[in-house]
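#lab-general

N.A. 3:47 PM
ok so I finally got the sequence cleaned up, no stray characters, all 89 residues accounted for. can someone with queue access submit it? mine expired

B.Y. 3:52 PM
send it over

N.A. 3:53 PM
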Amino acid sequence: MHVERDVTVENQVGIHLRVASQIVKLLNRFNCDVEISFNGRLANGKSIMSITQLMAPPGSVLHVKAVGEEAARAVMELDKLFRQKFGED
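B.Y. 4:20 PM
back already:
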């Protein structure tokens, strides 16, 4: 299965280490590969260092692409995490 979706960084600080940690922890629960892209940068959704290197500030729109058995569930849960502002607001 192949799923793509755009998500918006809605928390006040943007993508930082704690947020990246939450993303990795969530995505590692699913049997799929996830790529997240922003501003020409591409990150492995299961790598904390890769995600922090996106340097995505508040308001950024990130493109998520997941491929694998649980791709739809992974993207749905990731979208939910972004909409909940990572529990920061």
